[in-house]
Design a protein that fits this description.
By secondary structure, this protein is mainly α. The chain contains 4 helices and 4 strands.
Length: 151
């Protein structure tokens, strides 16, 4: 008898869970029934959500016009560019201060340039090493011909 009573208590909790689950399903169906004019996708994260959660920061039109504020802030922080890369206009209502970056941070943001700098340093060191280790000395011509000595 005790086991049956315990099972009834568990089933009550399950029914409440099922009720909440049904409520969630109804909400999702409602969200899915929203028209395209009420929904849009963020051009950065591509998440489809209500237009209320999205902003229009530049002059882009069509599907490129909407973006989440947080996505845009993250994008601007990483790219360091304060203009839209699509329409080339300034972002409206976005005030970001450019902070002074040290050389290491700048190199992290520009890996291609960092690779070029590293290759240049290696080339310069190799050239310096080659000049100090491989010297060709030319002596005046003797009867045997020219003599070349490696040091």
């Amino acid at each position: 008898m005790k086991e049956i009573t315990e099972m009834k208590e568990v089933s009550v909790d399950t029914s409440e869970f099922n009720f909440n689950l049904q409520s969630e399903i109804r909400n999702n169906r409602f969200q899915n029934k929203l028209t395209l004019s009420e929904r849009a996708s963020c051009r950065i994260c591509l998440d489809t959500s209500l237009k209320v959660n999205l902003i229009e920061p530049c002059r882009c039109r069509g599907s490129q016009r909407y973006v989440h504020y947080q996505c845009l802030a993250t994008w601007l922080e990483r790219s360091g560019n304060l203009k839209c890369q699509v329409c080339k206009s300034d972002y409206n209502g976005i005030n970001m201060k450019k902070k002074n970056m040290n050389f290491y941070d700048w190199m992290k943001r520009n890996p291609e340039f960092a690779a070029l700098v590293v290759c240049g340093i290696i080339y310069a060191e190799f050239t310096k090493w080659r000049k100090t280790h491989f010297k060709i000395k030319v002596y005046p011509q003797t009867s045997k011909g020219m003599r070349v000595t490696r040091v």
